[in-house]
Predict the structure.
Amino acid sequence: MEYRCIKELILEKYDGDGCSICGYGTVPIGSIWYEDDSSNILGGEIHLECKSGADDFGWIEITVKNLAAYFELTDCDEQCREDVTSCEYWDTEKCKLHQT
């Protein structure tokens, strides 16, 4: 799934091994991210890889709650689903791809 940041988010920076690099960065509004289910470096609920627009981060890990608060879905792997109310991340109100 692909997401766009809709609200600026400030997070601690980590290297590729999950070690803090002593600083914070900003996830800018409009940056594009995709979910990577195969990675989990820090133990976060959702691992997002930056596709474009975020110079401070190559990846982030956030909670499902923060995903809903700071990001909107722009591309969904579940487009063929008939019953979107069963989607584990979004309901029909938040899923722009499934709104009529």
Observations:
- The first helix runs from residue 64 to 70.
